[in-house]
Amino acid sequence: MIHSLFLINASGDIFLEKHWKSVVSRSVCDYFFEAQERASEAENVPPVIPTPHHYLLSVYRHKIFFVAVIQSEVPPLFVIEFLHRVVDTFQDYFGVCSEVMIKDNVVVVYEVLEEMLDNGFPLATESNILKELIKPPTILRTVVNTITGSTNVGDQLPTGQLSVVPWRRTGVKYTNNEAYFDVIEEIDAIIDKSGSTITAEIQGVIDACVKLTGMPDLTLSFMNPRLLDDVSFHPCVRFKRWESERILSFIPPDGNFRLLSYHVSAQNLVAIPVYVKHNISFRDSSSLGRFEITVGPKQTMGKTVEGVMVTSQMPKGVLNMTLTPSQGTHIFDPVTKLLSWDVGKINPQKLPSLKGSVSLQAGTSKPDENPTINLQFKIQQLAISGLKVNRLDMYGEKYKPFKGIKYMTKAGKFQVRT
Amino acid sequence: MAFEEVCPERIDLIHKNYRKLCNLLIDVEEWGQVVIINMLTRYARTQFLSPNQNQESLLEESAEKAFYGSEEEDAKDAKAEAASLAKRKPYVMDPDHRLLLRNTKPLLQSRNAAVVMAVAQLYFHLAPKAEVGVIAKALVRLLRSHSEVQYVVLQNVATMSIKRRGMFEPYLKSFYIRSTDPTQIKILKLEVLTNLANETNISTILREFQTYIRSMDKDFVAATIQAIGRCATNIGKVRDTCLNGLVQLLSNRDELVVAESVVVIKKLLQMQPAQHSEIIKHMAKLTDNIQVPMARASILWLIGEYCEHVPKIAPDVLRKMAKSFTNEEDIVKLQVINLAAKLYLTNSKQSKLLTQYVLNLAKYDQNYDIRDRARFIRQLIVPTEKSGALNKYAKKLFLAQKPAPILESSFKDRDHFQLGSLSHLLNAKAVGYQELPDWPDEAPDPSVRNVEVPEWTKCTSREKRKEKVEKPFYSDSEGESGPTESADSEPESVSKESGSSSSLGSSSSGSEEEEEEEEGSSGEQSEDKEEEEKRTKRKKEGSRKAAPGSTGSPSEEEEEEGVKKAKKKALQGKKSCAETSSEEASTSESSSSGSDSGSEAEAKRRKAPPSSRAGPKEISLLDLDDFTLAPPQPVPSSSIVSTSLVTDLEGLTLTDTSLAPALLSPAFSTVRTYELLHRMAGEGLSVEYCFSRQPFPGDPHMVAVQIQISNNTDAEVKSLRVSEPKPLSGMRIQEFPEIECLAPGDTASVVMGIDFCDSTQAANFQLRTHTRHFYVSIQPPVGELMAPVFMSENEFKKEQGKLTGMSEITEKLTLPEKCQSDHAIVQQVTSAANVGRVPCGADNEYRFAAKTVTSGSLVLITLERREGTAAQLTVNSEKMVIGTMLVKDIIQALAQ
């Protein structure tokens, strides 16, 4: 299965390598660099590259390429999914997954990788179990380790792995017992020139932060479970219970985890909470163009739209932009031609707008397309699909937990074509 | 995994473990799942017959149907489809094959993309076409994931969409392209969109393509133009529109766009050159501007090929090209020679000198290919004394009719690789790739998978380890998992039953299968449970023997036999009314779930009522969990159960309506049928309905009404459906799916749901056929507006305490002679109202509880027997009207 792993940074240096079966020479990465050169942008590097003796499967995250080397047939998603899991684990351990962070914690990184993959096969990929095996680094522990020369490897086998609930360790104790659930929905939409919706769908997740003593058994029920069309669960959720009663019943892992992700059925119309008015034009004769966009709230169910951020990739011919926003700040990067405007909150009485002119490279003809506008926003206390949690019950433990549920709607891939 | 590494071709090693693997699959850790599913796919391809052998034609349409509509309906449709398919053709799916499909389906919900993909490929390779649709949704979900995952999934979707276009059509919009996607994803999405294009959606797709053409990403634009070309060739209707659009693109400022359009136009023109000489002329003008060699070559070829259509322009173009010949790229040079040769043959007067000039230039070219070509063509076209017979045929050689090219997807030939594999992605055989075997013509012996009961306890050490690590997580909820488990297996068991009783007539398969199932289910239990289980089983075996009322022999096969016998009996009776069919469904449900699924909890549950009679020894064996859960009557509390139940009902009545059985179950002994449409009023069409007392699938607030339609005319009745429901305020009607055709003498049974809003108002609607419509109405008896709930005695008392005063109605009555026994009283009450019995300490009191279907308010009934024949009936309910009417109804029922 997976023979080796190389970590390559943006400038093309292999800064970490790990071999599980036999040592594969670094030179195998040359094929990767070749492919990288051919693809102008980092995202365009093909995830699978065949070489005469090996296959290179890579993922690109946080500006780092994670390149796995395999020698024989294996489902590509198997490897890719595993690599993503590695990145998630690093993120979980170190907060951010960056080159600096990995270099700083190189010992822990090797320890973690050694546990995650055994002779090329994924072994412990649950972050809860890993954290018991190898303790995440803290400042205090680093200091102690440097002085005493010990490592972060736990001296006990994780208890969870052998129990019936491998994702939860036994003997969890908290003084404050609390369970928080965040219902986060993202709207993916494409809006066309005239403002009509081409496609829109809602994807949601329920992220949980559960800090409960002992072995609680939770059930979560919804007011309108029929909204959920396509769901995927954390392994702790009892699937049969969901099938029969539409109730989420589970023994939660300790700490943060993603309980479920769902898709709201396509039949339901999606309320688009914001609209964008735009007037972008380039004139053929002069080297100046006009640029004007206004953002306003549409169907927000009385909630304020916050954290609005407008980004737009300008065509190559644009030299500079002189714009004045009615609120917020804007930046235009003349190198990448990326315009971003941090709007902030939308006040329905005074709609934010960004006006000004675009200067084009003299001599070139006007760009034949208008840039698409990408939108980001947040609406607190609202699940746009109308999903509501009915109640959360706990069985199996005596104490009364503190329960909290938060709703939020965000823009996912929200694009306005102009 | 060791198996895959060491000996992937030793299929025979899997036989004994196959069922265990299937059953354990869901509890195995996710990485193991991927490997096992892939292995099982190959195994199944060698061991089972193809489910799609002889129904290519009829499936296209049914697959189509299954995709629209809600999830539940989908599942229902697919199941019904499968059941009816199994009936229509002699092919009967191997139960083990079905087991695999059933056990892998929940894994589509996994968070691990690799698992989802593995299941998807398993379904694609193994499932009957009608059922493949379920994977589309899951795959579309994966498109939200990281771009690398998207890349792999889209590759696979592209292959699937060629073969099964209908599968992804509902999700067309999910493949729309965003400007932020990486180019490789864009191109793959484009590929999928092109594959999905058909006459109905082509206009929307083309509109999308128009926006893509203006994109900044030039590679992507080029791919879009090619995609337009492919749409145009595949769908004749839009060819002209596409061509016009492409011609407009010729005036685009970007050279790449123009070049790509030229190439595509060339291909399109080849299909119908005669009408488009204008376009050719226009393109000839472009030679001055376009620099991209491929495009120049295309234009030259076009002009050469159709020089007869543009007799004036062609020589002029050749003149220009001759001037710039030395500076051209190789492919352009070749085309110039080609053009010259063709012109020489058609119009030698004007172009003789030009041709010779070109050929001379080519003779001294650096490229040997061009030199060779020039020499060859000179010999062929210029007549000399040495030139042989070929000369005469030069014209035929050059100006032969050439077939139009077929623009095909590059994913066309990929489907011989196993989907989701590395080899498929690369379209080349990877090291260690195991070829997916073809379906066998003859099914190998299925009995190899049978395992002796004692054998599976001493499994290989590998299995043991696995079992230890992956003990089932759900061991604490077996009670709940039991019913769903059995529900899942039902539709299939029904189809099998009907199949075996009607066509095969052998009962051996049934009994065999049930034996396996039993092992399978126990495989699911954790190891420590297994021991206990066996004890239970043995004890039960004993108790079964002792149990009174069993048909004499204790085995479950016997019971099944009993059902069949009953069916046969009924066949003689030729009774076919809705009442009995519903009963059969319920009994067959209980018997099949008991004998078939063999789920331990279910079995225990079934045993519960007799065991309480048998003695305390039995009770001690049952888990406390299971015991409290065990209701006096099997009441499906879940919508899934009822879904499959409805399918059962439909399946049964549709398949063998004449086999209406005479089996009576005590709880439903007096289900009444009501007439909806008399055969006189309905001109030969008679419709009856009854309340099946099952929760309506999909909406718990609806009362399920089972409708039995029989056609007594001598003509076919077509497109039978409900129309123009005129519900009173708040009332809702869920119509049954349209019955397309009902043959003379045939009977169909359907289920519709009505939300009566807890009132006894009638629901009015029209029943339409292809010729007539009838106004009908359904009026529910008050007892049908509720569904039983189960509560303990204490709960009952607590609730009753809350519902006193106004909401309590008390009535005195006298019990007639025949209503003296416990059994009779319970039966009368449950027949009058859909209530569940509540256990009661005192033996002269009977308690029942139910909830109204719409508002869910409790209805509590207490019947207290006094001395002699006197009794007192108390009904506690928030809904006073319902309470009053219910009292009346129950008294009437008891008085009968």
TrEMBL record, chain A:
Domain MHD: 176-417
One Gene Ontology biological process: vesicle-mediated transport
Cellular compartments annotated: Cytoplasmic vesicle membrane; Golgi apparatus
InterPro entries documented for this protein: Adaptor_comp_med_subunit, AP2_Mu_C_sf, AP_mu_sigma_su, Clathrin_mu, Clathrin_mu_CS, Longin-like_dom_sf, MHD
Residues passing through the membrane, by range: none
Topology with respect to the bilayer: Peripheral membrane protein
Entry keywords, A to Z: Cytoplasmic vesicle, Golgi apparatus, Membrane, Protein transport, Transport
One GO cellular component, as annotated: clathrin adaptor complex
Cited Pfam families: Adap_comp_sub, Clat_adaptor_s
PANTHER family in alphabetical order: AP COMPLEX SUBUNIT MU
Family per record: Belongs to the adaptor complexes medium subunit family.
Protein's name according to its UniProt entry: MHD domain-containing protein
Organism of provenance: Mycteria americana
Lineage: Eukaryota, Metazoa, Chordata, Craniata, Vertebrata
